[in-house]
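ugh ok fine here u go
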Amino acid sequence: MNQVRMAVVIASLALLAVAPYAVSAQNAKPAGTIRFSAKSIGFIVGAEWGKGSLTLNNGKRYNIRIRMFRVGMAGIESIDATGTVFNLKKLADFGGRYVSGSAGITIGGGIAGETMKNSRNVVIKLRSTQIGVAAKIASSGITITLGAEQY
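structure:
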């Protein structure tokens, strides 16, 4: 019974952590999409790295690099993510550090959703699939570096 209570508490905290970000993108028009693949490894503290692309509504596509630091993560996993970008007024606002809170377990494979926001109010709603073995009760920060335009 204590495990059920703990799971409810963890899920509630994760929802409270991401609720402000969900509200800020609720009525916003999508500005583009993001797609990336990453690897993640950790014990107590975790790291994640990967690369992908940002595609704007005007069809322009840019390379991106992902770096993430998690506190409260143990395991190893491979992640493929896609998402929608909101509140992007100018391209220079996209890169930088995004914050979110999440909780989850991956055993073999799993599907997750996460909403992140940076200091310029750009919001990314992510959907991802993970393969591996990992547990996360994590506060995380992801840094996205914007690269060259793809032609």
